[in-house]
Amino acid sequence: MDNNEVYRKLARNISNSNLKGKVYAFKPKVDKNDIKRGFITRRFAQQSNDSQSPITELSQNTYGNLQSNPLYRLVSMKWRITGTIEEIKNSNRASISEQLSKMPQLKNRLVNLLEYYNA
Predict the structure, then answer these.
(1) Is the pLDDT of residue 20 over 70?
(2) pTM of the model
(3) Range list of β-strands (E), the chain
(4) What is the residue extent of each domain of the chain?
């Protein structure tokens, strides 16, 4: 049985309400506490049966609701927003690299290493 068949079978047989999670796109808002801390936490989901499917950024709440859902692959990472430009790029590049084994296309989703940068 290939991954698509497994996915369809799981999707048809979902009866557990924890598995009915919906994926809603989310754009983080940086606040003063985030700037003081120097980073934000970013969370992403992708269909587990298709490594080429779109990667969607999630809110903390949606991420939590999808934690036990086998239909989605999830990653969470620290995203640096303060420091020198070089420090931020290096830190965010490292955060992406740590997640590539779980979500290989993340490198194509997060191309702007200075996203949310606060000078």
Answers:
(1) no
(2) 0.82
(3) 39-47, 56-58, 72-80
(4) 22-109
